[in-house]
Amino acid sequence: MQDDSKSSRAVVLLSGGIDSTTCVAMARAEGFECFALSFYYQQRHQVEMQAARRVAEALGVAEHLILELPFGRIGGSALTSDLEVPKSSTVDEIMPGIPITYVPARNTIFLSVALGWAEVLDAGDIFIGVNALDYSGYPDCRPEYIEAFEKMANLAIKKAVEGTMQIRIHTPLIRMTKGQIIQEGLRLGIDYSITHSCYDPGPGGTACGHCDSCLLRKKGFSEAGVRDPTIYAVDVCPT
Fold first, then answer.
1. Which DSSP category does 32 fall into?
2. Which residues pair with 37 in a beta bridge?
């Protein structure tokens, strides 16, 4: 059996964006003591690490661990190489399929590290803010992927094999629209001005306003019926 004195601990993946921030707040609302895990993976939008620190402090996590991963040496994504980040004028113009901002195996690697930390912490619960509705088509955000990872996790670690801990992967946002996520976060008292979403920020971290992530962020605030606190660059889509 899992140690009851530590059963309320949870590892929560935190990027500093809307989804992961809301995920931390929801885990806290469920009574979990949150241990936030963030990654600097040589992403071009590394300003999100500043947002992750702000969020961790604002939400009062028990510990915030930031680890470095050399994804830039692997490449294969517009977020970790010199490939151009796609830009559009509206959400409707976002190209279907898996975009070039997909980072190969990112969530698998992130969740694997979270799994290791969870075992050390005796924390059987891992939260990740993946979403299968308002997202960019990433394969590692789908319910079937999460289900498969959870099954693998319980076959992979010592404490699960010995029967002293069971791993549960929580995806509270997976069936929510971006607007619903923002409404829930506001209900929980989140100040979204401290979060960051843009894949291709300008000097000082100003959001471009036209990458997939910016467009989905704008859409979310519009659907939620509240003002978007984000400062965007001049609202002209590059050609």
1. -
2. 13, 65
Structure tokens at 58: 């604002």
Answer whether residue 237 shows pLDDT above 70. Answer: no
Q: Where are the beta strands (DSSP E) in the chain?
A: 9-13, 33-40, 63-68, 125-127, 168-170
Which residues fall within 8 angstroms of residue 234, CB to CB, at 6 or more apart? none
What is the tens place of the pLDDT at every residue in 4-16? 444 499 999 999 9
**Where do we find the tokens 């279907």?**
96
- From residue 159, alpha-carbon distances to 114, 115, 154, 156, 164 in Å are 15, 11, 9, 9, 5
Structural domains of the chain, ranges and CATH numbers in brackets: 4-224 (3.40.50.620)
pLDDT tens digit string along 55-111?
999 999 999 999 999 999 999 999 999 999 999 888 888 878 899 999 999 999 999
Report d(CA 88, CA 212) in Å as an integer.
Answer: 7
Give the tokens for residue 130: 């993946």
DSSP letter assigned to residue 85: P
Q: Which residues of 22-46 are buried (b: 16+ CB within 10 A; e: fewer)?
A: bbbbbbbeeebbbbbbbbebbbbbe
> 115 vs 32, 167, 174, CA distance in Å?
16, 8, 20
- Model-level pTM? 0.92
Provide DSSP, 210-223.
-SHHHHHHHHHHHH
